[in-house]
Structure formats: structure tokens, C-alpha cells
Amino acid sequence: MDFKQILAKLSASFQKIWSWLKPYWNRFRKWRRHVWKKYHVNKIILLTALVAILGFSMYLFYVAKSTNVSTLKSGLEQVTTVYDKDGDEAGTLSKYGQKGTFVTIDQVSQHIKDAVISTEDKRFYEHKGFDVRGIARAAVRMVINRNTSGGGGSTITQQLAKNAYLTLDQTFDRKARELFLAIEIEKQYSKDEILEMYLNNAYFANGVWGVEDASHKYFGKSAADVTIDEAAVIAGMLKGPGIYNPIDHLDNAKDRRDTVLDLMVTNGKLDEATAGQLKSEELYVRDDFYHVDDSYTFPYYFDDVINEAEHKAGIKDEDLVSKGYKIYTTLDQNYQKAMNTSFENDSLFPPNAEDGEKVQGASIAINPTTGGVMAVVGGRGDYTPRGLNRATNSTVSLSPGSTLKPLAVYTPALEAGYEPNDMLKDEPLSFYDVQNYTRTYSGQAPMYQALAQSLNAPAVWLLNEIGLDRGYKKVEKFGISLNEKDRYYGLALGGLTKGTNPLKMASAYSVFANQGERIEPYYITKIVDASGTVVYENKPKSVRVTTPEVAEEMTSMMQGVFSSGTGVDAQPYGYTMAGKTGTTESVNVDDASKDQWIIGYTPDVVIATWVGFDESSETHYLTGGSGSNLATLFRDESQRILAASPGTPFSVADASQENQTTESEEDFRQKLGEFGNNVKENAGKLGGKLKEGAEVLKDSLSDLLGGLRERIGQ
Questions:
Q1: What Gene3D superfamilies does its record include (predicted)?
Q2: What DSSP designation does 223 have?
Q3: How far is 308 from 651, CA to CA, in rounded Å?
Q4: What is the reported pLDDT for 679?
Q5: 402 a catalytic residue
Q6: Cα–Cα distance between 335 and 640 in angstroms, integer?
Q7: Which one is catalytic: 402, 556, 564, 593?
Q8: How far apart are CA 470 and CA 256, in angstroms?
């Protein structure tokens, strides 16, 4: 059967179906016309459409009115600036902002103004923000092409609104928003002000924003000195800077220049003879643009400021860096410079791996009484813009090791009634396989000593005594996220499923320095927009973790870590700190470690520092413990930071020193008592001897005197 026969059979089948369906269809059409007429359906559809249009217009009107266009100019003129805790300028975010050198309209060549207006919006000085004829042309193009590509309907004011507030999506909704915003901008600013903002906010390829920097980038001169043909090149780039800039596409730039010159002639800004002469001339490029932005002073800190502004204040990062905000933070520039200095000194770190990979590190300093982050370094080596910050990134999972002992064991133990002098078992345990770092046991040890020396067996034993659930819940109370798999005795040693990071650990230890209260860490205190309005103000959140008494007892015990315990080599000279060291074992190499920690604090600052490899392996591991390996870096870092701190002393004494003093006094009293008894006993014996000697002496003197009398008598 050929194809024609198949079609004939299909046609016959459809004819039969239609013959059967036609009476029903005609009946339905009569009924529909009757209902349509009876219930005025046409009017209902028309009314619905009008209501929809009215509603959409009201929505766009609201969007336009709710957008603060009054800050547009000041936002474009100003650079977003970061201020420290004292209100002093610390740097800017211009590195990421769409900012060039801002110039006023009278500093721009008239040739540039004429070329831009002739090319982009020849009725610029006549319309009120939108051009009806331009919109009509765009509408015809949309009908013909069945899409909104091609543009052509946007005025300079609309383009400014798009660049400042909207996305580049070619959608009807965006175009409508653009139009309403343009009307609002026209109400707020003069035509010259609008043109000034547009020229300063336009992109000209090769990382250049604004006509001033573009003039230097492509012609080696100021925007005020640009010639007619050069102005035509600059105006021509607005259509597509990536394909019409003369550095990357010289021929395209010349062709586009000629088109702009023709448009200037059409618009009455240039005569044909001059345009023809300029078209015949060669185009020369001279680049004297040099812009090194070193105002992004503290990269890791500023990165986190941008992230916090986006997540907490709801300000998009592209708006934050471009719209002239003032961001007030908790940054301490002295602390940050001190931390940077230590991390830039390679001699303070363990040696590189065999393949040359650097040992990584991260550190953070926070104010325990406010929760404010005062300094942060997220890694060593080359900084990656907006890259990984090992100190704060939520994706970083580092095993805390023994730094978790104060949180999981000793704090809940004190809350349960234990005291720093209580003796803890230091011996192998039947319910959990645990060894001390030295592989030796002493039978028992006082709590303060077990903490200072980071003994593993007493910590696990004590966790069992107080109850695993109590320790688990207390760690969560300190702000450390746990997994149900972490509910085991290894919790006492910092064996976590997902790990943590220096920010969370510093925040947890701030509890001890802040009378048992933890304040959620933050960077930003407030954000002010270009008009001076406070658009965000931080309200720190706090939680009571333990009592002030327990916090002080923990501080008393943890001072021993630096005075006589595992952190003695990390003790900054001339300063008293409390805290804890921590080391996690490598699973790839025996007697090697993966992570090393030292967390130290005073009443003024908490410093949490970590070193290790991003990926531990048979060739990427650390030797020794944190108390010796990381000690050099931490001592240097903390000594520099504490030198700039207020120097507030602890209100409690070092438990280990206090107990040593007590033991020494008791020994002295015992020895003094023994000495007194010996003196008393020997004094008795001596008294008897002296009495006997006195009687002998008395008899001798009597005999002598008697002899003398006899001689005198003779």
C-alpha cells in the first residue's frame, strides 16, 4: 500500500467521524452564541483584561515609588566604605564595584555628549523619560521577530534605570519596570544630571567603567579633551563594549565609529564634510589607564562583611559594592594587622609537604563581651577573591580534638557538682578504648591537672560519670552543631562526624570570658546608604550557656594550660591567657596529626587558631602536637594582638598555681612542725646536761673558794 492510499483511507475515516460529530458541534455553537450574548461574555473578558492591566500598572507604580531614586546620584558618586569599631575608615569595596572615576557633566567633552545622544536617544532633551516613537518601533520589531530582542525602545533614562536597578533580561516585565522607574528618575533629576550619571555608570570593556576612565584607556586623555572621532568610538562602544572596543576589535570599532558619525550628521551635530574627513582617518589607540585598587585592605574580613550584608541585611552583593554604602563593623585594625603579620611569616609554620603543598592555617579573634569579629585570616598563600575562608566558611569541617573537652566534659561536670580539685581516674577503661597522648597513666589526677595536661582517660571517665547525654546537650548549647552519630564517648576527645571551624570554637570559648553568656558572632554593626539613612542595624543575639561561677572556675583551670600544661610554649610573654590545645590523629600515618588547634582568651579577646592540610593523606600530615608545633605561631600572633588590647586582667587565679601554692604551704607547715618537735626534744636533753654541768661547776667553785679561805687564814 503506497502513501497516497494511506492518506485516502485516513481522509475517508475523518469524513465519517466529522459526519457523526457535525450535528453535535452545530448544536454546541448555537448554545455558545446564546450564552455568550445572554451573559455579556465579551464585556466580561474586556473588563477582566482592563482590571488586569490596571492591577499590573498599579504594581509597577508601587515598584517605582518604593525605589529610592533620590539616592541614585550619590550612590554612583560615592564608593562603598568599610569602617572599623572606632568609626575610622578601614577600606572600600570598590575592587568589586562597578565604579570608575566620577566626573561632572561639565568635565565631559561636548563631542561625547553629542555622539551619545545621537546614537542612544536623539530626543533625550524632549521626552519625559520614555520615547513613544521608540517604544512603537520596538513593539513592531517584537511582533515581527516574536521576541523582545533587538532593544531600540529604551531612552538614556531607561538605560540608566536598567543599569542601576534591574537585570539585563529582555522581558516585558523588566521593560515595564524600566519605563516606570525612568519616569521617577526624570521627576527627581535634571537632564544634565541624568546624562552625567549615565556616562559615569556605563561599561566600556576591559574592566573600565565611565567615560573618564574609558578616555584614558583607549585614547590616553581625559574625557574633556576627546576629539569628535574619538567621541564617536566611545559612544559606539555602548551598543556592545565587548565587540566594539578598539583594543580587542579595531576594525569593528572603526566601522561603528563611522556609523555614529553618520548619526551625528543626521541629528544635526556634525556636517557631512567633517564626518567624511574623519571616516578617512586612521584610528589610533593610546592606553595610559592605570588603576591599582589596594583599598580592599583586609580581604578575608571584607569578604565576610559582604556575605553578612547579603544574608542578614538582605542587600545584594552587586548593590552593596556599587551604591555608596557606609558599612560600620567590629573590625580592630590593630588586631587584623597583627594577625596578618604572623600569617605572612612562613617561619612560624610547619614545613611544607614533600610535594611542596603548604600547611594551611586560619585564625579568628572575637570580642567575648559583644560577639563582634575583630580580625580574621582564612588561609595562607595567594588570596582567592571571595574564595574559601577556612576560619568561617560553613563548608569547612575541622575536627576540634581536645579543644572540645572543656565544652563536652568539664563544664557540665562542674555544673553537676564536681570541683576543680576532685580526683579523676586516670587508667585504662573497660567501656571505651582510650589512651593518653604519652601512652602512660598515673592512676588518678585532679580535674584541673587533667584539663591542663589534656589527659584523655580522665576526660572519658568523667563524661561517663556525668552522663553522655549531658555532655552532648552542653556542646550544642555552646553553639557547636552535632550529629546523632556524635553521641558516643569519643565526643570527649573531639571526635565529631562533621567537625567545626575556628569561628564556632572562638564563639564557644567566649562563654568562659563573658560570665557564661554567648553572643552570636557578627561583623556589621550598621549600614548607612548614600543618603545617610540607616538601612540595617545589628541586634546581637545572646544565650545563657552556663553560670558565671562555672565560667570562672573553667577560666581558673584553663589558665593552667598556658602556665604549666600543654600550651606552656604558646604562652605570650608577659601576658596571662586561658584556653586549650587540641590535636587530632592522622588516619594515614602513625604518630602523626591531621589538625592542630590552640584557643586562647583573656577578658578582652578570644583567639582560635588552626593549622593543617586541606586534604590529609600519606604525604600530607603534621608531626608533633599543637602545644609544640602550633605554639610558635600562636605565641607570636597572640603577643601582637594582646599588645593592642585593653589588658583587662582575669578576676580569678590560676587553679594549678593556686593548688601548687597550697601544697607547698602544707609541706612547709609539716616540716616546720617536725622541726619544732626536734628542737623541743633536743632542748630537753640539753637542759639536763646543762643542769648536771651547773652542779659540777658549783662543786668546783665551792672547793676553790674553800681552798682560798684556808690560805688566807694562814
A1: 6.20.370.110, Biosynthetic peptidoglycan transglycosylase-like, DD-peptidase/beta-lactamase superfamily
A2: G
A3: 34
A4: 45
A5: yes
A6: 8
A7: 402
A8: 74
